[in-house]
Amino acid sequence: MELQINGRVMQADVEPDMPLLWVLRDVLGLTGTKYGCGIGDCGACTVRVAGQAVRSCVTGAASVAGKPIQTIEGLGTAAKPHPLQSAWIAEQVPQCGYCQSGMLMAAASLLERKPRPTDADIDASITNLCRCGTYQRVRLAIKRAAGSRS
């Protein structure tokens, strides 16, 4: 199966219904996307497919073939971080960090749709669960990133 991931075409010899999460992690070695609950509730596995936040643990690989997929590895680089990544650091969002890649991907999707989100927009879009409870910092970081966008 041919997948477009982070701007590159990648081949994965997998069953069509294999969850995208396992294709990314186990087959392609992109381990930034995390396994959390396995039923699409927690959001640790969130990636972007054609710009939309998608829970990869419940998304069959064949359903996203031919669509651009972005994982946390494709969001920014150490030399040129995405504004959200810089804001996450500035607002000291990560505690344990486990859920953060999924939160960042959901936030990137939100900012693409709504460059200046309100608190209500953030609350409606960021449904990821965080055991550390840094939700207020997440909100501040999203607003900071929105202010730095050109």
Task: Output the keywords.
alpha+beta; 34% helix; DNA polymerase, domain 1; five-stranded mixed sheet; Ubiquitin-like (UB roll); 150 residues; 5 helices; 2 domains
Protein architecture, described:
With 150 residues, this protein is of the alpha+beta class. The chain has 2 domains: 2-72, Ubiquitin-like (UB roll); 83-148, DNA polymerase, domain 1 (Orthogonal Bundle), CATH 1.10.150.120. The chain contains 5 helices and 5 strands. The chain has helices at 20-27, 83-90, 100-113, 119-125, 135-148; strands spanning 2-5, 8-11, 46-49, 52-55, 68-70. A 5-stranded mixed beta sheet has the order 2-1-5-3-4, covered by helices on one side. A hairpin with a 2-residue loop joins strand 3 (46-49) and strand 4. It is globular.
Give the secondary structure arrangement, pairings included.
Elements: E1 2-5, E2 8-11, H1 20-27, E3 46-49, E4 52-55, E5 68-70, H2 83-90, H3 100-113, H4 119-125, H5 135-148
Parallel strand pairs: 1-5
Antiparallel strand pairs: 1-2, 3-4, 3-5
Helix pairs in contact: 2-5
